[in-house]
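// run 5 | inverse folding | seed 20
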């Protein structure tokens, strides 16, 4: 696999360090994205198909340890198994150990030599891209013409991609994973929205109906008479399996 197909996210609150690392990696032919805190990095991980994350430990708003913990906890996300190289300052031995225990793949201490950083990146990419990732590709979920691809986090209807928010994606993935199963609003909040990192409002059960309405407007030909996303009055919502011709 060529370098240009490897997309690397660099996350550090020091702009000069991000800029320097980006220069080194782009010189090697890698595609580079940038973030300045852990929350921003998680948002990018949720919407981009990445090959590796370089993550600083000490950052404002959300530090690298918290971001790594959230990344590894979201087992439904393709980014869950993304290789992570931690950036640490000298003397942060406890944080290095903690980071490795939480699932970091490697670390490099500041200041570092560009050649060492590039060598560590290439080593991790060899394992992840050339030798295969640690999990198999998630199966595409299908209900009639409705498809959800967990690997690319995309939704399509009859082959045409539909733009959905992270919250809508989470709800749809939950419902499509068990067609014809009715989920209450409480279950949807607990199971689908629990790990959300976007700017959407999470956890409030009275918001679920709003997200359902928005989804219907996107996936149904006639939202008032839905074919796929249905309400079971007094119980919750379900995705119809489409086993019958309608």
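// decoded
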């Amino acid at each position: 696999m060529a370098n240009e197909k490897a997309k690397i996210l660099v996350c550090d609150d020091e702009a000069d360090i991000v800029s320097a690392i980006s220069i080194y990696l782009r010189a090697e032919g890698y595609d580079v994205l940038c973030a300045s805190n852990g929350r921003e990095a998680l948002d990018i991980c949720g919407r981009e198909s990445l090959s590796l994350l370089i993550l600083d430990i000490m950052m404002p708003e959300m530090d690298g340890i918290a971001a790594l913990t959230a990344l590894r906890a979201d087992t439904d996300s393709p980014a869950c198994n993304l290789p992570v190289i931690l950036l640490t300052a000298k003397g942060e031995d406890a944080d290095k150990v903690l980071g490795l225990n939480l699932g970091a793949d490697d670390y490099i201490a500041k200041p570092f030599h560009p050649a060492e950083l590039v060598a560590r990146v290439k080593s991790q990419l060899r394992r992840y891209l050339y030798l295969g990732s640690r999990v198999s590709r998630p199966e595409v979920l299908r209900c009639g013409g409705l498809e959800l691809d967990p690997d690319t986090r995309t939704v399509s209807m009859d082959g045409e991609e539909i733009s959905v928010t992270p919250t809508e994606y989470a709800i749809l993935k939950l419902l499509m994973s068990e067609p014809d199963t009715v989920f209450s609003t409480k279950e949807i909040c607990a199971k689908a929205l629990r790990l959300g990192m976007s700017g959407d409002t999470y956890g409030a059960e009275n918001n679920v109906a709003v997200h359902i309405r928005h989804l219907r407007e996107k996936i149904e030909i006639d939202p008032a008479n839905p074919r796929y996303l249905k309400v079971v009055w007094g119980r919750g919502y379900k995705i119809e399996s489409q086993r019958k011709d309608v």
